[in-house]
Amino acid sequence: xxxxxxxxxxxxxxxxxxxxxxxxxxxxxxxxxxxxxxxxxxxxxxxxxxxxxxxxxxxxxxxxxxxxxxxxxxxxxxxxxxxxxxxxxxxxxxxxxxxxxxxxxxxxxxxxxxxxxxxxxxxxxxxxxxxxxxxxxxxxxxxxxxxxxxxxxxxxxxxxxxxxxxxxxxxxxxxxxxxxxxxxxxxxxxxxxxxxxxxxxxxxxxx
Length: 207
Ligand code: PRP
Ligand code: URA
Hints:
By secondary structure, this protein is an alpha/beta fold. The protein is built from six helices and 15 strands. It binds 1-O-pyrophosphono-5-O-phosphono-alpha-D-ribofuranose and uracil. Uracil binds near residues 132, 192, 193 and 199.
């Protein structure tokens, strides 16, 4: 699990617990997912580079900073959209690409149906966002799309990671760092993460 960084913070643990609870409504699930994502953004973007300049306060000149790296956010449809607004709140100049991938319920294999990316993937910090990393098939397919388009600096931010998904990404995309709120025990026979939080897309959208 060398590529996995679990964000260890009391506020993260509180919000993961709220997302797990089956009594949490879709409305509250969306609110908590957004809040939890905002907390995780700090950790996921910790190494982003800065440009410096001189800024004039009302009193004197001092050092100021802007973000030097371009950031491209790539939510995996559908559930990744539940994390997007939190990212844009903190990175208002980020560009957004979209990848549509869903898991075939019988085979658990990823089926891709949409991809649209802004230019300059190769020069940007690319953050793939999806609450669930289960078998890893969907994330791996999305990362392959990005790599085929020459993205070099890719990281994944999920909420719940399963050991199986982390292992698959480490094998197939060893340069991709994974940021998760929690590492769960395993996948069950139906491919759900346990203890998990259920189907993230269904819980966000009430389907
Ligand atoms: C969920 C989740 C991930 C995927 C993870 O999406 O948001 O994209 O499953 O599973 P995996 O690691 O085994 O591929 P889902 O397939 O339910 O699609 P949806 O959000 O469109 O419903
Ligand atoms: N996708 C989900 O939304 N939840 C799981 O537990 C596994 C895959």
